[in-house]
Amino acid sequence: MNIFIFAELSQVLMRKSFLFSYSEGADDWWNEIGGSKQWQSGPTYYILSASYALVSLVALVQLVRIQLRVPEYGWTIQKVFHLMNFLVNGLRAVLFGLYKSVLLIKPKALEMLLMDLPGLLFFSTYTLLVLFWAEIYHQARSLPTDKLRPAYYIINGFIYFTQVCIWIFIRVSRSPVAVEAARIFFSVISFGTALGFLIYGGRLFIMLRHFPIESRGRQKKLEEVCAYV
Q1: What is residue 99's predicted lDDT score, i.e. its pLDDT?
Q2: Does the pTM of the predicted model rise above 0.85?
Q3: Closest Cα to residue 115, out of 31, 194, 16?
Q4: Which residue ranges does the record assign to the THH1/TOM1/TOM3 domain (predicted)?
Q5: How would residue 50 be classed by pLDDT, with cut points 50, 70 and 90?
Q6: Which of left, alpha, beta for 76 (phi over 0: left; psi -120 to 50: alpha)?
Q7: Separation in Å, CA 223 to CA 113, 185, 218, 226
């Protein structure tokens, strides 16, 4: 669950200056942080940039390793997951590294799009992992899997459509209500992704515990599920 907390906090931090400029009803302590030159000139953004760059590099290494090991399988869910992980964390690393320039982008709608896009890609990336676990679980239990991928596409399509509507609403209304809607929306999709992790990650973990103890694949997959959940 730590990965969702870290991503949520960094997403909020990246969007705070934009939201501060649109919302006059924010809390005093948050306004103080938003206008603090000491906070903005500190190393926080660069530490986050370096952290995301490291995660992005690890994802790229994993992608290359899998491709070299099993090139004949084409683009599997695992490969797409590592590619998306590389892209979303690389984008966040760039945005945090160049945050001063990003916050000066005009129009503001483009600035908000750049700051929100990593959060949307993060949602797509980790719901893809949930899809991967769900397919494993359903196949192992001889349950139908034909509705899992369509559900993934429909849910992601709905999330992106809703986010575009929120961007338009904020651009047109410029009201604190629109800003609050954006905050709640990102909290909801983060909670939804975490819930998917708990449901299918937990089910897969319990199922794998019943595999033979000497199974190397079982032990490796258990460690992987535990690391993500």
Answers
A1: 78
A2: no
A3: 16
A4: 26-227
A5: very high
A6: beta
A7: 36, 32, 9, 5
